[in-house]
Amino acid sequence: MKAQELERVAAQVVERTLGQLPQEIREVAGRVAVHFEPAPSADVLAEGFEPDLLGLFSGDPLGAPDTPEQAVPPQIHLYVANLWDYAGEDLGEFREEVRLTFLHELGHFLGWDEDDVAARGLD
Predict the structure, then answer these.
(1) How far apart are CA 42 and CA 86, in angstroms?
(2) Distance of alpha carbon 119 from alpha carbon 123, whole angstroms
(3) pLDDT by residue (tens digit) across 28-85?
(4) How far apart are CA 59 and CA 73, in angstroms?
(5) What is the DSSP-derived secondary structure letter of residue 64?
């Protein structure tokens, strides 16, 4: 499947997932941008992340104090080609992995660490 189609499907999954969240989380989730990219950029890899990374939250989590030197607003990156490979090129599995990865990264935006995310079944 081509990158544009993967991005379209992933965007639909994120939109549907947002619609299923409780209202208070849905409102907060609207504050974080979601980007769909084939794979991590060279800058992300230079930070030590693996090339098969599925998703990444960057920026400050919700509730972090605003500072003038904040360089990057909160954002979620979903790496659709990596998700497609991870799902074994199965569309149903791809949709589920996009959903889980989005929720996992959204958890980081909400301020949850890896243990909190795992405790909620989003690891």
Answers:
(1) 20
(2) 8
(3) 998 899 999 999 999 999 999 999 999 999 988 887 776 666 667 899 999 999 999 9
(4) 5
(5) P
CA distance 41 to 65: 28
pLDDT in tens, 79-119: 999 999 999 999 999 999 999 999 999 999 988 777 876 77
Instruction: Give the global pTM.
Output: 0.89
Q: Which of 47, 121, 35 lies closest to 79 in space, CA to CA?
A: 35
Structural domains in the chain, sorted by start: 3-63+70-117 (3.30.2010.20)
| Rama region for 4: left / alpha / beta (φ>0; ψ in -120 to 50; rest) | alpha
Q: Please give the Cα distance from 72 to 90 (Å, whole number).
A: 34
Q: What is the DSSP letter of 5?
A: H
Q: b/e string for 56-76 if b means 16 or more Cβ within 10 A?
A: bbbbbeeeeeeeeeeeeebeb
